[in-house]
Amino acid sequence: MAQRETWATRTGFILAAVGSAVGLGNIWRFPFITADGGGAAFLVVYLLFVAFIGFPAILVEFVVGRRTERNPVGALLELGGNAWKYVGGVFIVTGFVILSYYSVVAGWFIRYFFEGFRGSYADRLATHGGEAGAMFGEVSTGMDAFVLHTVFMAVTIGVVALGIRRGIEVATKAMVPAIVVLLAGLAVWAFTLSGSGAGYEYYLSPDFSTITSNWTNLLPAAAGQAFFTLSLGMGVMITYASYLGEDRNLTKDAATIIGFDTGIAFLTGLVVFPIFFAAGITDPGEGGPGAIFVSMTQAFADLSGGRLLGLLFFGTVAIAALSSAISLLEVVTAYVIDEKGVERWKAALGMGGVIYLLGIPVTYDLIFLDLLDLFADGILLVFGALVLMLLVGWVAPQFAVEELSKGIGDLGSLGQAWIWAVRVPIIAVLAVSLYLGIVDYV
Ligand code: PFF
Ligand code: NA
Questions:
Q1: 26 C-beta closer than 6 A to ligand 1
Q2: Residue 228 Cα, ligand 1 centroid: separation in angstroms?
Q3: DSSP label at 54?
Q4: Alpha helix (H) ranges present in 285-441?
């Protein structure tokens, strides 16, 4: 068997993991799911979820990957035995479903990027009656959406087929700071808009009675968003950690990834909600999956230098989406390569091709986006995370604390605290979230 690849540089792993985490989940999904959950009430539950479940969960994926040095399906097989292999198969299905619509949404960002080449965003808006919502409605489905979905999937397949991870690592290095600077600048500008105050109220001032009365909706929504945004629950972090040496401090890496990811999502909210309220939109939930496009086109139309900023913003997010999409296709491809002995380019093309076909209906009608997104996030990802917790918490716990301590030193009682958090409270919360997610869906 060929020597298994490892990360070319010390920072390769962290760059790829951050590249996978930071993407449409932060910029596109976070604002509209937050709006769906009523704003600040959702934000609170989501942040708790990231800290108390996302953080232990990412460590679980890391130790599984580093210990087994295998793709997620092979890793479950090795740790749990034959029956768990089939559960691992769910990861592959999840990857299929998520990437199929992820690519369509990424295509929208490419579309809005090109709009900036055709004219100012104010002019582009004018061709749609000056209405950002109408513009989104017209460009989000149809021939152009189909073509851009095709382009995005082709690039994703190309990168994974050629195995050119280095280029993506470099792109991530530039992309993350660029997104932070752009969002921070936009957030400052949004702050100056008259009427934006109500946006902060909506986003940052939780009404705790809504949380308690609405927790059956908030819990599965927060679970799905937390796992989606951190790329958890389908083996991406298992796969990336499987190429890893033993000297890395996984806890520190987890904190870095979560810090960037959560920070960028939070900043996005600080841009979107003030802009909405300043524009007189008092129910941000109306925007749905178009929320980010509606608020941003409005902003870039009003802002001096908006055309350049828009090009930068939509272009950077498209690149962020690419590094996430690559991680999705990489899991699926690595599985076929490792377990079926197929050549890399054939695996990437075959799997990518099927995913591409699955995404096509979304370019016809956004109803399919809803169906696929809620199924993948609210059910499949939570299921995948729950299964991993059961495996590492109960079935094969012996290796976990020892593996985590490599590159750190003796964990003392913290290691035990981590494993016990996984064993009881986290598993309980995930089981309830999964149940509620299923009830919600059907
Ligand atoms: N974390 C990515 C984002 O926030 O856009 C999306 C994603 C990538 C989800 C990889 C799941 C995954 F396995
Ligand atoms: Na993310």
A1: yes
A2: 5
A3: I
A4: 291-302, 306-340, 344-359, 367-374, 382-390, 398-405, 413-421, 427-441
Task: Find the 25 Cα to ligand 1 centroid distance in Å.
Answer: 6
Which alpha helices (H) appear in 24-128, and where do they start and end? Answer: 24, 30-36, 40-49, 55-68, 72-80, 82-118, 121-126
CA distance 400 to 405: 9
- The neighbourhood of ligand 2, an ion, using CB within 5 A, equals 21, 25-26, 229, 261
Whole-angstrom distance, CA of residue 19 vs CA of residue 17: 5
Q: Which two tokens stand for residue 319?
A: 């690149």
**Measured from the CB, is residue 231 less than 6 Å from ligand 1?**
yes
Query: In whole angstroms, how far apart are CA 21 and each of 35, 221, 263, 291, 320?
Result: 21, 18, 12, 21, 9
Ligand 1 pocket check for 239: Cβ under 6 Å: no
The answer to whether 104 touches 149, Cβ cutoff 8 Å, is yes
In the chain, the amino acid numbered 182 is L
Domains defined along the chain, listed by start: 12-441 (1.10.4160)
The Cα–Cα gap between 62 and 367 comes to 35
The structure tokens listed for 180 are 């932070």
377 CA → ligand 2 middle, Å: 13
Confidence (pLDDT) at 3: 59
For a substitution probing ligand 1, which of 18, 20, 92, 94 has the most ligand atoms within 8 Å of its CB? Answer: 20
Model confidence pLDDT, tens digit, residues 309-367:
999 999 999 999 999 999 999 999 988 988 889 999 999 999 999 999 999 999 999 99
- The reported pTM is 0.96
pLDDT of residue 1: 40
The answer to whether the CB of 91 is under 6 A from ligand 1 is no
Which-ligand-closest: CA of 261?
2
Question: Residue 254 to residues 268, 328, 377, 404: CA-CA distances in angstroms?
Answer: 21, 19, 21, 11
pLDDT digit string, tens, across residues 38-67? 999 999 999 999 999 999 999 999 999 999
Q: Is the CB of 94 under 6 A from ligand 1?
A: no
- Asked whether 25 lines ligand 1 (CB < 6 A), one says yes
Residue whose pair of structure tokens reads 């995948």 in the numeric block = 384
Indicate the DSSP class of residue 303: S
Look up residue 166 and give its two tokens: 């280095």
Ligand 1 pocket mutation, candidates 239, 316, 324, criterion most atoms within 8 A of CB: 324
DSSP state letter for 341: -
